[in-house]
Design a protein that fits this description.
The chain has helices at about 5-15, 20-35, 40-55, 55-65, 75-90, 100-115, 125-130, 165-170, 175, 195-205, 230-235, 240-245, 250-260, and strands at about 130-140, 145-150, 220, 220-225, 225-230, 265-275, 280-285. The protein is α+β, with helices and mostly antiparallel strands. It has two domains: about 5-90; about 115-285, no CATH class. The strands form three sheets. It has a three-stranded antiparallel beta sheet with strand order 5-6-7. Strands 1-2 form a two-stranded antiparallel sheet. A two-stranded antiparallel sheet has the order 3-4. Strand 3 and strand 4 form a beta hairpin. Helix 1 (about 5-15) packs parallel to helix 3 (about 40-55), helix 3 (about 40-55) packs antiparallel against helix 4 (about 55-65) and helix 4 (about 55-65) packs antiparallel against helix 5. The termini are far apart.
């Protein structure tokens, strides 16, 4: 057994025994980055396993296609499985690397450098996919200006809208000009009694797409920050699964469903965090 395989087996064991804690996922990512800088064939063979475990399906398929022995039946079978996953998912549903406090600070600095407005209830719309980038730029349907970062997410309006710039959403001009809302007022948690907070959520906050109609969680008398699509693996990797399950909204059967969720699968969870106490909550739906 070579040194790379030995280390992988140790990290894989740690990952499964801890059910994918932040520390075990970060350790796998560190090993992945180490292997990516090594040209040794044995290292590359183990790198395929690391990619596969972290659900970098396209990376695993591409690398195995490059180095695999196609005369070996096991290799051909694995290539077939990975090809199917790579075609459906690419690397889109790879298990995210849990961020350290320092990395989170750098993310805040990056958003500041981009000049994006601050959305309290949707703090990183680029990370969640609510905002997209265009090198050529697109024309905002509200202000008529060219923007390289734009929104194509849900907006409840009778008018046809292709692109909106972040500034028109944050100012409320987009909602006013198109008589629209970014969130259905009936698809929000109870317990928020300040109408200004509801106004901010539905008129000046980019929405998110779900399998069914999006729903917004609330806690501590305020709406929560939306953090993105997740499944149970992501919840474990972020270290918040236990916290999410400690939610009176869900009965035991629903908690079992959350623990069966797969990001991008038939059961999808959407992660929120309270702006006041920091508690994590989810909403879930089924396709």
């Amino acid at each position: 057994m070579n040194q790379y395989l030995k280390k992988y087996i140790e990290l894989q064991k740690q990952f499964h025994q801890t059910e994918g804690t932040p520390e075990s996922v970060r350790a796998l990512y560190a090993f992945k980055e180490e292997l990516e800088g090594i040209e040794d064939r044995q290292a590359k063979e183990v790198l395929v396993d690391v990619y596969d475990l972290l659900d970098f399906k396209k990376s695993a398929y591409d690398l195995l296609s490059e180095i695999g022995d196609r005369s070996d039946r096991k290799t051909l079978k694995r290539l077939g499985v990975l090809k199917e996953y790579a075609g459906k998912w690419g690397n889109h549903y790879a298990l995210p690397k849990p961020k350290t406090p320092e990395e989170k600070q750098k993310d805040q600095e990056r958003r500041s450098q981009l000049g994006l407005p601050i959305f309290r209830y949707h703090p990183d719309p680029l990370e969640t996919g609510a905002f997209e980038k265009s090198e050529e730029g697109v024309v905002c349907d509200c202000c008529g200006k060219t923007t390289r970062i734009y929104y194509q997410g849900p907006i409840f309006s009778e008018k046809d809208i292709d692109y909106l710039c972040p500034e028109c959403i944050a100012s409320g001009e987009a909602a006013e000009n198109f008589d629209g809302e970014f969130q259905d007022t009936y698809s929000v948690d109870d317990g928020v009694y300040d109408p200004a907070k509801l106004d901010e959520l539905i008129h000046r906050t980019p929405g998110y797409c779900g399998w069914q109609e999006a729903y917004w969680r609330a806690h501590c008398g305020d709406y929560c920050a939306y953090l993105g699509h997740v499944g149970v693996r992501e919840l474990r990797a972020l270290g918040v699964l236990k916290e999410v399950l400690d939610d009176p909204m869900w009965n035991d059967q629903q908690k079992d469903v959350i623990q069966a969720s797969v990001n991008g699968g038939h059961i999808q969870c959407y992660l929120f965090q309270c702006l006041h106490c920091g508690k994590h909550l989810v909403w879930m739906d089924i396709d």
